[in-house]
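Structure ticket #2291
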Amino acid sequence: MKQKVVVGLSGGVDSSVAAWLLKQQGYDVTGVYMINWKDTEGTLSGSCPYEDDVLIAELVARKLEIPFQVVDLSDTYRRQVVDYMFAEYEKGRTPNPDVLCNREIKFDAFWKTAQSLGADKVATGHYCRCDQVRGEDGQSYYRLLAGTDNNKDQSYFLCQLSQEQLSHAMFPIGDMLKPEIRRIAASLGLATAQKRDSQGICFVGKVDLPVFLQQQLSAKEGDIYEIPADFKAYGRKYPEDLHLRLQKQSSPYFYRPKDGRLLGRHQGAHFYTIGQRKGLHIGGTEKPMYVLATDIENNCLYMGRGDEHPGLYRRSLYIASDEIHWIRPDKAMKVGEQRDYAVRIRYRQPLQQARLYAFEEGLYIDFSEPQKSIAAGQFAAWYDGDELVGSGVIHA
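Resolution: structure written out below.
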């Protein structure tokens, strides 16, 4: 009896070819389109017309001669992803909704839908790989591996998946290159062959973030201050004690209005994030201005001039113990242990060499080189070679 696989057909070329590959491999394939977002407020024109995507996904299913269904998960998506996103921005943190979308929707709510259709597995068009190995404890574990195409690797977005979620996940295109995907789609005459890749927030699309956030967060005018590059705290000395040094290095710089000069006004500190350069309507400076810090309590923004500004860089970050997630639980670090990994703190960032230190209160990541724009709320993910071993929410 054929194994049944439900493919998340998004109306894009990657999931289309994934479905074709699975059918070629002899699986019983069903295509399902997930409606996760219907509102258009704050979205940029034409960025996420889900009605068009449904039509394209259905055309692909017909071409591949596989069953097709549409499932509405928009209520779950709003609760599990969008409400979380609003709450994080309100606290002055920078969430990554795509990571939450994969953990809460594609490999949880969608999997439950797939099970109701009799599925044994779910498949997506992610550029990543998964296999099974035996750990040092003799138990079997699933590994999440980077995609073969370094330019398209999407393993970072799956950094919060569990062993149970990986056990029923399939990534058919993980060992392929994007040009090959396009070529196959064109040779099959699929409607997605030349369709551009989606951008922006998962299932929402490209947004004007302040306008989008104003659906739930109120605009509130406040002051913008420019912090000079010679601000005294940048020359601070660090203790020799390892634990204290890591605590100090991972702590964000603290600013007050008297530390800088008044530069302009903004519409709400919670609408902005560390390292942001656009959308502040500040011009006339010799170098671009970057957000260094957001003070939500006092509704102030602090900015620095130029991407070499020392306020943009920190050597370490901290992840609280309850925010650490090990995809490979057999590799979880014990208190007092230290280990070297390659780390990234945002999608597409080249992997950075770092040493991880496990303490009672959590995990410290100490980079070989200072990192730009470390933002609380984002996810740090650490790799052992091609394998994504664990991740966590950046606390500071």
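Closing remark: Residues 319 and 363 are 5 Å apart (CA to CA).
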